[in-house]
Amino acid sequence: MVVAVKPGVRPRDPNFGSGPCRKRPGWSAAVLEGAxxxxxxxxxxxxxxxxxxxxxxxxxxxxxxxxxxxIVPASDTGAVEIALWSLLGPRGVDLLAWENFGLAWVGxxxxxxxxxxxxxxxxxxxALPDLAAVSFERDVVFVWNGTTSGVRVPNGDWIAAExxxxxxxxxxxxxxxxxxxxxxxxxxxxxxxxxxxxEAQHGMLVLSPRAVERLESYTPSxxxxxxxxxxxxxxxxxxxxxxxxxxxxSMLCVEDMLDALAWAASVGGLEALIARAEAxxxxxAAWVAESDWAxxxxxxxxxxxxTSICLKIVDRWFAELAPARxxxxxxxxxxxxxxxxxxxxxxxxxxxxxxLRLWGGATVAGADIEALLPWLxxxxxxxxxxxxxxxxxxxx
Length: 396
Prior knowledge:
Blueprint (H helix, E strand, L loop, with lengths): L43 H18 L6 E6 L1 H13 L5 E5 L2 H14 L4 E5 L16 E5 L1 E2 L4 E2 L14 E4 L16 E5 L10 E6 L1 H9 L13 E2 L2 E2 L14 H16 L2 H22 L3 E3 L11 E6 L2 H4 L3 H17 L15 E5 L6 H30 L1
Parallel strand pairs: 2-3, 2-4, 4-7, 7-8
Antiparallel strand pairs: 1-9, 5-6, 8-9, 10-11, 12-13, 13-14
C-alpha cells in the first residue's frame, strides 16, 4: 500500500549506489594508515602487498590453485578488454547480451575486432536470452550478473563441462556475492569497487589452464597495446599473476582492498557474503509482493540479482504517461530521496527502463534496506501527488 506519510526511521547509511558501492560496515579512513605510500609497487614490500590481494582473493572466492589471478588496469572493463583482445579469434564466438555491459562487449567484438564468425543472443532488459541455444564448440562471452538490469544467470548448469571453446565471463557485481562455478569459467573478470566497496580502476583477471593454453598457442592477427599483453616470448607472463602489475596501481587502493578482504573473512567468508546479499534481496522481495506500484525488472525470480536490485514502476497512472514524462517521474523520486538524505545514487541505469536500482550486496546492512523501503513508498506517493496536482491546476 502506497503511503503519503513521511517515515520516521532513516537508513543509517544512505549509500545504495551500484559502484563504487558502500564501504564495509565500520569502515573509516583510519584503515588506510598502514598503506605503502611513497614506495614503488615494484619494491619487495609493494609486490608483497599486491600478491597478498591475489591470495586473499583466491582464498575468499575459493578459486582453484591452477587458476591464475592477476591485477590489471582499468577496472573490470580493462580486464574484459584484455581477455577479448588476447583470446578471441581462433574459433567462432557466441555473445550473450541482456543489458548495457553485455551489449558493450558485443560492440567491441563486432565493431572493433570485426570477427567474422559471431552469433549474438540478445534479450530485453528484464529477461535472459535462450541459454540452451549457445554452442560450447565456440567461445562464449557473457556477463554473470547484469548490473544495469538486475538479471543474472541462475547457475552454471547451462555451461558445458566438456567444451572446446572458452567461456569468458564478466563477473563484476557477481564475484563476492554469488557462487561462481570455476570449473565452468575459463576467464572471469571483476573489480574492487563492485560488491567489496573498494576503490576504482583496478581489475581482476582469472584464467583457467585452458585459457593459459590458448594464450600460449595463439597469437592474434591484430596488434596488442602494452596494457593488454599477457605473454612474453610466447609464454604466459607469470609475474602479472604474482603481483607484478602491468602498470602502476594505487597502493592506497591496495590497502583498502586488503581491509575489505579481511573484513569478509572475519564475517564468515564467501558463504556469509552470499547469505547477506540474498537476505537483502529477500527483504525487497517481501516489500515488492505487497506493493501496488513497484515490481522487479527481472521477470523470473531465479534470475533476480541480489546485488543490483532493479525495480520498475507498474502503477497504471505511470504506464499511461509519455516516455519522457515517465523518466521525469523516476528521476524526481531519486532526487527527492537524495534531498531527504535517505538514499543516494539509486536511479536506474540511463539505458534501462525508468525505475530504481538498489545495491544489496554484503556491505549493505539489512536494517538499512528495511528502513529504506517505506521511504520508496513515500517518495513515489509524493511525486505522484505533485504531478496530479500540477495537472489539475493546468486543467483549470
